[in-house]
């Protein structure tokens, strides 16, 4: 009998639990540890923030689904992982032991690295659904008293897609309300150019996004380092190579949403051999930690080096499909170990993304993630908005049903030539 624990019940961890079930023997036990009773679909947070979704529409009560699928669910949260003892210390003081652990704890949001940043300070966030609800209140206040907007992603950020989405859906909603003429918009980003996305661009994301910004009168500042934020004012340093400040900007704002840098969560940060200095989990090509081979990791909590040097630090995004590929590889590798074999399966880590602009959007596929690529494609169209709404419905449905990848999802991806795995073990 083996005890398998998944730590983190977010987008990756929940699907991880569903995929692991099929790998277990009759006496094995699977536990999912979260820190909230409800799952929320993070990619829909921008829509909650603008009032296009209610919080309840993107949330799911996990306990009944997991009970139906025979997964033990603990939602009290973990205080610390003790890998030497194969033990997780819970916030309640109890211990949960494991034979195999999958870390899926996502990011800790490093708002504290910039004075005044974040929902406890002067800028809004869409990283958690509770932040998105608060951001919606701030947006309605802006609509009542229009003024300048700043949207973007700060130094060290890795998740740029949602910043573009949010800027462009704000523009769409403000135009619908006939308020756009009263709201100057600036996009402030650590990226070296618009459309870099932490991936050195995909297809023509540079051209597509620059032209979208030009058409919608959104100004931008790239290579931006946010020095500090005060009530209604952001100090931004535009950096040149070698850490030189090329220009400083004092930007006034009535409303701002800035994506923060991420780091690993406190439960795993600072554990020698398990995590890097930023707290992200170190893994090999089989998603397995080299120092503690019974620990695997998937999702945003995984350490990935940046794509290349940039004047301002920029991380690599971990997008949904990439996370799902990590999940499938990990499930197969743990399954192989449970059956006395060895991990052989590798995730492709392909970046596949739909970025919604409210009335249109862009889609991109990068395979592999690091250029030069075999597939390097991006396109713009109204269909992306429709596809994203369809994907939201589909994903929420599969989490509610306790399924991971029904066969028609596999069929569509295979038809498009997008693979999740590099090699199949068994
Ligand atoms: P999360 O979904 O954040 O899950 C981590 C979970 O671990 C959380 O539930 C957290 O509560 C839990 N946890 C943390 N610490 C502990 C602890 N100590 N004990 C117990 N539980 C713990 N990607 C796309 O491909 N398409 C998109 O459209 C898209 N939109 C995005 C929009 C936003 C606003 C953001 C922030 C990201 C978006 N992403 C998107 C990127 C990525 O898909 C998401 O960030 C995704 O949620 C990451 O999944 P994850 O499982 O790694 O982390």
UniProtKB/TrEMBL annotation:
Principal EC category: oxidoreductase
One Pfam family in the UniProt entry: Pyr_redox_2
Domain FAD/NAD(P)-binding: 3-302
Coiled-coil regions, chain positions: none
Assigned keywords, A-Z: FAD, Flavoprotein, Oxidoreductase
MF-aspect GO terms: oxidoreductase activity
InterPro entries xref list: FAD/NAD-bd_sf (IPR036188), FAD/NAD-binding_dom (IPR023753), NADH-Q_oxidoreductase (IPR051169)
Keyword Endoplasmic reticulum: no
Keyword Flavoprotein: yes
E.C. number: 1.8.5.-
Cofactor: FAD
The protein, known as: Sulfide:quinone oxidoreductase
Native source species: Kaistia dalseonensis
